[in-house]
Amino acid sequence: MVKNKGLVKTVQFKDPRYVGDPINAVKIFNEKEVDELIVLDIDATAENREPDYRMVENLAGECRMPLCYGGGIRTVEQAHRIFALGVEKVALSSAMVACPELVTQIAAQVGNQSVVAVLDVKRGSGNGRYEVWTHNGTRNTRRCPVGFAKELERLGIGEIITNSIENDGLLKGYDFALVDSIRESISVPMTVLGGAGSLGDIEQLISRYGIVGAAAGGLFVFKGVYRAVLINYPSPEEKKAVFLRSGYGRSPCESERISSPY
Amino acid sequence: MITIIDYGLGNIKAFANVYKSLGVPFVLAAKAGDLDDATKIILPGVGAFDHAIDLLKSSGMKERLDEIVIKGKAPVLGICVGMQMLASSSEEGKLHGLGWMNGTVKRIDSSSLTTRTRLPHMGWNSVEAVRQGSLFEGIDTGTRFYFLHSYYFHCHNSEDVVALTEYGGWFPCAVNSANVYGVQFHPEKSHQGGIRLLQNFANL
After folding, report:
1. What's the predicted TM-score (pTM) here?
2. Which of A91, A165, A181, B121 could form a cystine bridge with B167, CB 3.0-4.6 A?
3. pLDDT tens, B58-115?
4. Rounded to whole angstroms, how far apart are CA atoms A181 and A217?
5. Which of A110, A205, A211 to mutate to test the interface with B (most CBs of B within 10 A)?
6. CATH code of the domain in which B131 resides
7. Domain CATH number, residue A216
8. Residue pLDDT, tens place only, B108-163
9. B171: which chain A residues are within 8 Å (Cβ-Cβ)?
């Protein structure tokens, strides 16, 4: 998450704590060969402004892994400009709630694979049902994430990221009940964010859902019980061990070549 | 000079960023006149096959590229949909491909996918080289690259297959015939392995 041009980590979408300079972070993530980076500018929509194109360009210029940018994108033109800066995917949230057709319009230009929905989800205090929120968890759209995810899929979304507002920053694990409710209702790739505090949490996610995007914030920027800021990321060996322990079986490089026509 | 074809599709800037950081000179080409000094060509691409072919045609560069690649024998590297465009046709679209390489583009067989594997094939997967050297010089077999696609390049000549990846079955993820090269994954977004591959292409 980016706020005031700095990288921040929130707890339940509140109390943003500064954890470093985004460009530096990208350089470290390059060295650590991170799978994919999602950068969300949490000021842009809240301040009702456009994306900070300069910052996005600088980030994309350094980034040697797929980059997904979200924050302040409300029009096809803005999305187009973000892609031209060297970004693979754009993430939509409040604009897509206001105007779901935006998904179709952007996808028509760049392909579905590059249009991502971020669903910030929280249970309603009264009914306990999951609902989609926007504007950093301050506005309740009252939309059910399952129904909305299905609608987005019909409109041509390429990927859905769910972010659990309640689990955000707690480092106590993902909200599986939320993932359960959405996962089987959609067939587009899904990435889960919110709550991961250990590689064990990621292992559980993969074990439960197979091929699924496991995303984390705090896990990769804090170290130890005192949450000292230290950007970290599992080594290839550690990642492989997570795959093996998850019971998903194998990391792909160890598969046998069976029934290959080549 | 390495010439990156800028016909409105694909992450042109990402290739430029990699070559800039490697100190390898390159130019972007958006019209036929930009192709005069092209000795090596990078053809990126994302999205739908017909849309990509349409855009390349309307850029006015297609005929000149045909000459440079077919007659001039300049090495060309197609990436993602850029690789698929090298084929004669695709199950995804109705238009003819460039036909620079013997093959057709097929959809990944979704019947072979389980509920745990879905399309598009999106993410990192290991690449197993079946032919050493050239683009994969100095890259360990099993190195992971970033993929994002639902269709793959089916080679009519099995000797054109350079590397394979498994997702709902094995498919060629890198191909080469004479001066024509293609990779299904995104080297521009695949860390050191991808950077090395783009360097190798520059060194050809």
Report:
1. 0.91
2. B121
3. 999 999 999 999 998 999 999 999 999 999 999 999 999 999 999 999 998 877 766 5
4. 23
5. A211
6. 3.40.50.880
7. 3.20.20.70
8. 887 776 655 677 888 999 999 999 889 999 999 999 999 999 899 999 999 999 99
9. 262
The SS3 call for residue A115 is strand
Q: Determine which of A88, A89, A184 to mutate to test the interface with B (most B C-beta atoms within 10 Å).
A: A88
The residues of A annotated with a catalytic role in the active site are 120
Q: Any idea what the Cα angle at residue B185 is, between residues B196 and B101, rounded to 5°?
A: 100
Is some CB atom of chain A closer than 8 A to the CB atom of B148?
Answer: yes
Smallest CA-to-CA distance from A220 within A15, A6, A44, A35 is with A35
| Mean pLDDT value across chain A | 91
Query: Any idea what DSSP says for residue A88?
Result: S
Number of domains in chain A: 1
What are A41's strand-pairing partners?
A2
Residue environment code for B46-78, b if the CB has 16+ CB neighbours within 10 A, otherwise e: bbbbebbbeebeebebbebbeebbbeeebbbbb
Tokens of A246: 């998850």
Residue type, A219: L
What span, in angstroms and rounded, lies between the C-alpha atoms of B106 and B93? 10
Number of domains in chain B: 1
ipTM score for this prediction: 0.87
Query: Given an 8 Å threshold on Cβ–Cβ distance, is A111 in contact with B142?
Result: no
- A187 chain-B contacts, CB cut-off 8 A: 118
Confidence of residue B46 (pLDDT cuts 50, 70, 90): confident
Give pLDDT tens digits for A152-206. 999 999 999 999 999 999 999 999 999 999 998 998 899 999 999 999 999 999 9
